[in-house]
Write a structure and sequence with these properties.
Strand order of the largest sheet: 2-5-1-6-7
Largest sheet: 5 strands, parallel
Helix content: 40-55%
Strand content: 15-25%
CATH superfamily: P-loop containing nucleotide triphosphate hydrolases
Radius of gyration: 16 Å
CATH class: Alpha Beta
CATH architecture: 3-Layer(aba) Sandwich
Length: about 170
């Protein structure tokens, strides 16, 4: 496991899992939100995002968390492991609101500088509709990678903890 992609709804735990896995595997984490957003919540163009992503894809190892399906082709092809956090929409929505309360007015470490935590009704609706609007596309696309990629679909917190525990044990043996 040297090139890992983590996908899932906002609030599913992508950033948290990436950081935990990074400390186990000693691999750099790349947050797609940091690549996409510019200070003041300005968006990168698709071309800019592709170029920023490519810098990391050229490295020997990485953990890249975030969806950004318009630029995920190269990332999915290069990955040796794809993890999809297919988490309940109620939990994701709760976590997004909790995160907003905790970090309100400050920039989280997984966001670009100059992008203080914010929340909008549109974003909450995006999180709520994520399973209906995005899951089928994610499943279809990641399953196309099964000939060369380990695919893990984790739906419960317990499954994530078990996965992390397995990786800690495998490194210690």
């Amino acid at each position: 496991m040297r090139r890992v992609v983590i996908l899932g709804s906002p609030g599913s735990g992508k950033s948290t899992l990436a950081k935990q896995l990074s400390s186990i595997l000693k691999i750099e984490v790349v947050h797609m939100d940091q690549l996409f957003w510019k200070p003041g919540w300005l968006q990168s163009t698709r071309e800019e995002l592709l170029n920023k992503q490519e810098i990391h894809l050229k490295k020997k190892s990485w953990i890249i968390e975030g969806n950004y399906t318009s630029v995920w082709e190269d990332r999915l092809r290069a990955a040796d492991t794809i993890i999809f956090l297919d988490v309940n929409r109620f939990l994701c929505t709760y976590r997004v609101i909790k995160r907003w309360i905790k970090h309100r007015g400050r920039t989280r470490e997984d966001l670009a500088e100059g992008c203080p935590e914010r929340i909008t009704v549109e974003f909450i609706l995006y999180v709520w509709r994520f399973p209906k609007d995005k899951n089928k596309k994610i499943y279809r696309r990641i399953l196309q990678q099964n000939s060369h990629t380990q695919i893990l679909i984790l739906q419960k917190r317990k499954a994530v903890h078990h996965f992390l525990k397995q990786n800690i044990l495998s490194l210690n043996t």
